[in-house]
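User: I'm new to structure prediction. If I give you an amino acid sequence, what do you actually give back? Let's try with this one:
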Amino acid sequence: MPFGLQRLGMAAGATGALAAGALGYVLRRPLPQLDGEVRLKGLSGGIEIVRDRWGIPHISAHEVHDALFGQGYCHAQDRLWQMDLTRRIASGRLAEVFGPEALDVDRFQRRLGLHRAAEAEWQTAEPELRDSLTAYAAGVNACLEGMLATGKLPVEFVLARFQPDPWLPIDTLGYARFQAFALSPNWESELVRSRLIARLGYVVAASLEPDVWQPDTDALPRLQDWGPPEMPEPGELPPIVLTGGPGASNAWVVSGERSSSGKPLLANDPHLFPRLPSVFYEAHLMAGGDLNVAGASAPGAPGILIGHNRHIAWGITATMADVQDLYVERVDPGDQRRTEFAGRWETGTHVREVIRVKGRAQPWVEEVLITTRHGPLLTPTPSLADEHRPLALRSMVLEAPSAASAVLAINRAACWDEFRAATSRWGTPAMNVLYADTEGNIGYQMVGHIPVRARGEGLVPSPGWSGQYEWQAPLPFDQMPTAFNPPDGLWANANHNAARTSPHFFAREFIAPARYRRIRQVLESKQRHSAVDFGALQADEVSLPAREIASLLVSHLTPTGRNELRALDELRGWDGRISADSAAAAVYEVFRNELVRARFSDALGDLTAAALGVGPHPLLGAVNSHYFFQTERVQTYLEEHGGDEVVQRAFTRTVQWLTRRLGPDVKNWQWGRLHHLAMEHPLSIRKPLGMLFNVPPFPWSGDLETIRAGGCLPGELKAGGPISAYRFIADCSDWDNSLSCIPAGQSGQRGSPHYADQVDTWRRVGYHPLAFTRPAVARVARHTLTLRPQ
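Assistant: Good question. You get back a string of structure tokens that encode the predicted 3D arrangement of the chain. For your 790 residues, that looks like this:
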């Protein structure tokens, strides 16, 4: 393990509670049984769980429902704390455990109502989905009952002094919607944009994002329909770290004509904000002749989200489609349940959300109004304390089916037609899904419900009373972007605008296409690729815009001092690699932020943070769309203005800052000295628990525009933005040649050898084989546990 008993002893000394040996015992005691036999209620037949050297369970049963039971059992063995925490966030139940400090987040979540949407989906779910979720929940609960009976709950429950409730099928549906909400951006950008317009006017606000909208557009309601709010002060983090913000992803696929094996190859690495334990959990499910699928699963949900079965492989990226709109409502002063629509008052649904708060005798009661047309009122709430407008959120995350049914159907699809039929069930979040199969086919399908708007593009909150900005029926599945066996034999997506040729509106705020351009550049550079080539591409640190910006700076700037001259020398001839040991990368990264500040700080004042991409709330909306467009806009400014006074001032400030921070020797200005990745446990915010649970920070390369993801938080240099949460390479010629890796380890239990055993492999962009056939599994097997009916 990368950190061991000496560090545990330090943590124990800091807490003053346990000696190192006793702490080791406490951490090892709740580790799950991995060998032998366990008899359980709820099984129709036996289940064999073979765990390999990386802790991946290969779960085999005669019936599909028993395999899903086994998956729930394994998830609970290794990730029960993570699962319970996630469902508490989704359902607004953090304050039960963490007290008043978490109440504001609970209040927002109760207003949002992911739990209400999950309950509604459960009531209308098809029997097949209900049976699958029930089987999975039974497996979770069988494991939980054993933990409670033996007093061997994971140590986090002991530290937080509570016991988890039984797992329910609606917990899975709530988890799915929680993840969908995180991957469905735009509401936060609507808030920020409306605040910028209210403060600066249309012309100046539009000049900050000319690639999104123009001041004379008729897509925006007028200011009097939704203004004028103020930009909030930066919020304080609650006592536990939650989700970060929206992610990104890379995925690409090549046909057999472009692979060294003669069969398709597919690669995927979804990017999410750093979390510990890892977001994903690898698993392999087998059930007779009906199911044989391996890849990345989500603790809390059955099935495989990214992976392959015997016939097909698939990977996913976020579409960045705009599936959420805010509406400013007119509330009847005489009856707070009524809102105006088209000249009439409509009575919404009033909900009393009772929130239990640890340490308080009386619960908090949150009064929520769910409007007839647009969904729940999110304000007033302390999480958006500065926001005085009554804002309702209409969201496909609250209306569309989750992805649960679609994922389970994809797991069993055997061809392109079955795959498309499965993806047609996918409601939320909107995603891009890339495809490959053993017959040599490759393809692409956008999935999810996309709203069709009667007017406007959802760029700012719309007047809810007008009736002009309503949603119509979602875009039909057969009109969603798709491709099958493209002529050049390759397809890629990196959250850019994959729907640019479609006549339908999807969004204005896609991620700038730098990663997509680089992926295409490398894939087109030669005719055939191998899995090794795909691994090298997932490790690629080249930023094409960095290369171009460096060239522009060298061409236009006149250095005014020795260190400015040396800094330009570092940029001259630089290939744009954002490597941890690169001084040029450090100069470039600091300059990006300094140029934004030099351009806007005088005019924007406290709104400068918004132009750097800071969202309206550090957890609920950590970033806005400026975050994803910053580099592209820096490059455009340099192309149009060359080395003007603003650019020169920004560069001078860059060199001065780096000199103060890293010393006068430019050779010591390595990016990795500024750009550290911290993998932190949710409880680490309560010191000194970080010493116990966290992986020590380490230098990290890359940024938002490199394929090897290493994004910073807005306006910062620390690697706190999206990173690769799972790396996967599928080889359709031989599934046993498929490769994968997660950032930390399979287990969320600190005493397990698999808590962080993949960190070093992941850091160097290494992989382990994802064993699939029985002989391959046998070669890497380490433990065998049999579950039998009681």
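You can read the tokens as a compact description of the fold. Here is one thing that stands out. Confidence is low (pLDDT under 50) at residues 1-14, 230-241.
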